[in-house]
């Protein structure tokens, strides 16, 4: 998916990108809604944000796979053309 985004074949999911970036900053930063020194609660809020971002990424991957399946039907493989010429 990343390669397709870089090559311009799939649109960049900006919302997911910025949410993941904010999540990474939130998990790394010492300022939290619930401090990490609180047993279990401090880690739970970080884990909640990570799970939300993973759910967003999962949706983007599913959308990418659907897009790839759609375009695969429209693409002609050059190997098929070479094989056709050899037979003809």
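^ Assign residues to that structure.
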């Amino acid at each position: 998916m990343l390669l397709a985004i870089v090559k311009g074949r799939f649109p960049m999911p900006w919302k997911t990108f910025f949410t993941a970036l904010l999540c990474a900053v939130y998990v790394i930063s010492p300022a939290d809604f619930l401090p990490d020194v609180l047993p279990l609660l401090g880690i739970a809020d970080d884990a909640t944000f990570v799970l939300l971002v993973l759910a967003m990424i999962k949706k983007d991957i599913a959308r990418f796979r659907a897009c790839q399946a759609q375009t695969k039907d429209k693409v002609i493989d050059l190997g098929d053309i070479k094989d056709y010429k050899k037979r003809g």
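The chain has one domain: 13-87.
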